[in-house]
Amino acid sequence: MDYYDADVLIVGAGGAGLRAAIAVAEADPSAKIALVSKVYPMRSHTVAAEGGSAGVIQTTDSLDAHFNDTVHGGDWLCEQDVVEFFVSRSTAEMIQLEHWGCPWSRKPDGNINVRAFGGMKIERTWFAADRSGFHTLHTLFQTSIKYPSIKRFDEYFCVDLYVDDGRAQGATVLSPSTGEFTAIGARAVILATGGAGRVFRQNTNGGIVTGDGMALAYRHGVPLRDMEFMQYHPTCMPGSGILFTEACRGEGGHLLNKDGYRYLQDYGLGPVTPEPRNKTMELGPRDRLSQAFWQESKKGRTVETPQGDVVYLDMRHLGRAKLKERLPLICDLAEEFMDLDPADSPIPVRPAVHYTMGGIVADIRTATPLAGLYAAGECSSVGIHGANRLGSNSLAELFVFGHVAGDEALKFSKGAPAVKTDRLLDQAKASAAKVVALRDQKGGGIRHADLRKEMAMTMEEGCGIYRTAADMQATCDKLAELKRQFRDVTIEDRSAVWNTDWISAVELGYQLDVAEAVAHSALLRKESRGAHQRIDGYEARDDVNFLAHSLANYREGAAPEITYGPVKITRSKPGERAYGALGEALEVKEEKKDAAHA
Amino acid sequence: MSERRPYRRPMPSNWWWAPGPYRAYTIRELTGVAIVIYGAVLLAGLISLASGPSSYAGFLAFLKSPFSLLLHLVLLAAVVYHVKTWFETLPKTQPKIIVDGKPVPAEQITKYATMVAAGCSLALILLVMGVAR
Amino acid sequence: MPDAALAAKTVELRILRYRPASDERPSYESFHVPYSQEMSVLEALQSIKDTLDGSLSFRWSCRMAVCGSCGMMINGKPQLACSTFLRNLPPGPVTLEPLNNFPIERDLVVTVGDFVKKIESIYPYIIPKVPRTIEEGAYLQTPAQMAAYESFSDCINCMLCYAACPQFGENPDFIGPGAMALLQRYNGDSRDGGQRLRLDQIHGENGVWSCTAVGYCSEVCPKQVDPANAVNQNKTNSAFDFFLSFVRKA
């Protein structure tokens, strides 16, 4: 087996992984970095982010405002010290990306432009047209080429972490192009593997978003935190689930029901104004908008299509010129995929799973409870999103915490003893043997593709926008059954080179573990908060019992054990979470109270 | 020992005549030869003019022959086609032209360049006709 | 009756397959999958893999024409499988082959590494003309300055342009349209001062002079990057530098 020795191993080369790699390379050019990615870095799913990245830049804006929006948006399940840190570091990261060449959209005078986004009080979303993820990812990838200390393992798939002596010390990786394994030893390991949205049926995610890093850490005893909070994005393409960015509404798009009525005004998001108004109507947060769609659908006021019920995203009033300038990708998607021109006709949309708010539990330094293991980006839960993430906070998270993870992992690696190569190789061989056994087993003739479809279906049924105990229990039972069946999978393809049949089966194993964490965490949260909404007697938020992070703990061959941990509250006491007119009234009240105290 | 064995498909030797964009490209390049041929005809005229009146009369007689008329028709068609494709390729060969913060679309560059060229040609024709009179 | 007819409608996909462990050379295999109005070529491939033959290999991820993974020859033309829809293809079998001009690793998967090396070779990052600290804030860049390079920054590295380029087919060492577009993306950026450093990649037989302005690369580009423009405007730069080199010597 091939062996590579690194100081810092980074698994995942999307926004967070690349930012971490650059951070290590800049801090210490002599540190050896192994950057592993199962796809070429520019294919990472960061590429699909559209709307933008939040960072306070306007003189009328403040870090406090960004903090409050984020904590309110997260329904007070955020780690407030981490949010404070996050908002304070975000703008610098955006400027750093600008220096590295990111083509952020500009005002006519050449200064950075920002746009409105859901749940944000003031415009603070930096954007590169509607290809913000694409441009930031390519900027980071291309910049990373500058550093010779970054040794990339492009198209290497991680099959296991190497944990020895209570420390993460490397990983076993598989090269699809040869079917051979490599053991990578490292003094510190960063996971930056992205989310797990593909466990659901209709989702905005790329095929690679299979929760690999979450499952890897989880299997080694690191809890997954707040996994019940899966974000439904309200405006996605029916059927495929492809995303129409929130920037469509930030630029002034409307959501209409089948009668052409802006139905959000019926769900506490009014008043209706012709111009977009922050934190109001279409600029409400994603959980509320997706929930409003569900209600509207129950009332029979949505439009039935073969791909499910839809409402309309209407941008005709914005005009073709503005659409082409601000939302060119959206125009292309509508034209190429749906044969319609958004300047002439409204786009049919429906909610789809978009983002995993929870993840590998990590602290403000991105350190997980397992020594030497760090996590950044969507795979992690550093605690800034709480029960509902605000749009444009996740790109910013990649850069802020990718940077931190790089610095912290490097620091840790300096004090960590060298990897014992023979022990690593022994473990790596064992890990590889397990994966090869899955490929070569006779099995019971079960196709993993069938299991994957059933998993995605049952997740949608039990852990959708609104949830009941009965449905969630059914999903938990179904997942247990699917895990049993997974043991009897037969992989048709037994060859070594580019065996994607095999790799997607390993990915399904990851997905089933993560799906179980989601479903069981959801079942036990007997309240409604953010993206977790129940309609079986737990419709209200319950701060007495559930102002707490759920922690899913892995148990081999059994359902996860769910425990709870405290939420860090620094200066924002849990209050009423409101948008539209009521939200504005509450804000005024808050400000008066603050002024009185001062 | 890796089972990896990349297979390189051979480039077909007649790729340049494959129907579609490659054939269009080949025709575009070949029509460039028409300009050379026409240049040769003009050169022949000059040489015969220099060689004396009888030689030049022979050249004029050649020009009036059916073969020459046909040749000139074919050359004209080829040159017109080549000119058209030349102006279509033009925007690809130059730095972007930016007006009001926006790049000028390729079609417009082609359109304006063609108009300028047509204008110049017309002026040249008028000039030649004026001199001839 | 029409419903039943619609439900029974299938489409034939003729796929060039190559399994290095067992096949001496690639050969075609046909599959029939249920047809629907919304189905992309990628979804047809996924349907084959999920229900008919799990051993069929192809790359894909985002499904929305931005990750650049799923480029292939569709009826002889380089296209992204995710944004090519069966409804827009002529009736009859759909022929799918790996991208032209690249070695085939397996089935529809081609070798990408050489292309990535070319990207790496052109110094694809800002080499600041005037360095700036974070505290000094962002550079100013007017819309006109952005327009000078912006379209070249839209390249998704899908390699369709390389599959369209006969000169790359003849000479695999040709730097090629995609890498040249990226080079021009940085050369044209008002923040960048690395133009001289990138000249070596422009010059020579494997530089821009391999290009004969076929122009098909720009036609197949799914993002209107116009790589042919990047290559050809650098011919001027290369020639100019060639003459300047004599002046410098003198």
**Silhouette of chain C:** elongated
Reported by name, the CATH topology of the largest domain in chain B is: 3 helical TM bundles of succinate and fumarate reductases
What is the CATH third-level topology name of the largest domain in chain C?
A: Fumarate Reductase Iron-sulfur Protein, Chain B, domain 2
Order of helical and strand elements of chain C: HEEHEEEEEHHHHHHHH
- What is the gyration radius of chain B calculated from CA atoms? 23 Å
Counted up, domains of chain B total 2
Low-pLDDT regions of chain B: none
Q: Largest sheet of chain B, order of strands side by side?
A: 1-2
Name the structural class of chain B: mainly alpha
Radius of gyration of chain C: 22 Å
Report helical residue fraction of chain C. Answer: 25-40%
Task: Compose a concise summary of this entry.
The complex is a heterotrimer of chains A (598), B (133) and C (250). Chain A is an alpha/beta fold. Helix content of chain A is 37%, strand content 18%.
Explain the overall architecture.
The complex is a heterotrimer of chains A (598), B (133) and C (250). Chain A is α/β, with parallel strands linked by helices and 598 residues long. Chain A has three domains: 303 residues, FAD/NAD(P)-binding domain; 122 residues, Flavocytochrome C3, Chain A, domain 1; 100 residues, Methane Monooxygenase Hydroxylase, Chain G, domain 1 (Up-down Bundle), CATH 1.20.58.100. Helix content of chain A is 37%, strand content 18%. Chain A is built from 16 helices and 21 strands. In chain A, the strands form five sheets. In chain A, strands 1, 2, 6, 7, 8, 9 and 16 form a seven-stranded mixed beta sheet that branches. In chain A, strand 20 and strand 21 form a beta hairpin. The longest helix of chain A is centred in the C-terminal third of the chain and has 25 residues. Chain A is globular. The N and C termini of chain A lie far apart (66 Å). Chain B has 133 residues and is mainly alpha-helical. Chain B folds into two domains: 62 residues, Fumarate reductase/succinate dehydrogenase, transmembrane subunit (3 helical TM bundles of succinate and fumarate reductases, Up-down Bundle); 40 residues. In chain B, 70% of the residues lie in helices and 3% in strands. In chain B, strand 1 and strand 2 form a beta hairpin. The mean pLDDT of chain C is 94. In chain C, strand 3 and strand 4 form a beta hairpin. Chain C has ten helices and seven strands. The longest helix of chain C has 23 residues. Chain C has 250 residues and is of the alpha+beta class. Chain C is elongated. Chains in contact: A-B, A-C, B-C. At the A-B interface, loops of A face loops of B.
